Amino acid sequence: MSRLAICPGSFDPITYGHLDIIQRGAKVFDQVIVTVFNNQSKQPLFSVEERMELLKAVTKDLENVRVDTSSGLLMDYAREQNAQVILRGLRAVSDFEYEMQITSMNRKLNENIETFFMMTNNQYSFLSSSMVKEVAKYHANVSDLVPEVVEQALKHKFAQNK
Length: 162
Fold this sequence. Notes:
- By secondary structure, this protein is an alpha/beta fold.
- Helix content is 44%, strand content 19%.
- It contains six helices and five strands, in the order E-H-E-H-E-H-E-H-E-H-H.
- Strand 2 (31-37), helix 2 and strand 3 (65-70) form a beta-alpha-beta unit.
- GO terms for molecular function: ATP binding; pantetheine-phosphate adenylyltransferase activity.
- This is Phosphopantetheine adenylyltransferase.
């Protein structure tokens, strides 16, 4: 049986921390669908389409990874895709409490889909998309935080917003 994992997120933008989890997940699961969800509580910098293009660019060498989007409930999407697992990254203890709440709700919605947590590589444990956007907004160097294609997209975005 093929093991399919959904790696959900807003990815606004994708960071090396996200990419670390996706690459490692691709070694564990037969297929990983990186799915862009639009978080209604956040004001995104990049459109869903832009985020998907950036994800496709940075995962193009991972043969068992594909990029998709959904605007509904994660567990409905996972069921539609016949996924067995939700793949999530944890940076610090502070993430754990939030993730535990989400996992408990997801389990209530569909007890047949497991959540698989991976600890982010220590070098990325401080990293968040929000932090990257804040640093990039002031034209600081983000080359060690995001892939080059994302760095260029951030520069372009913030050049437009001057």
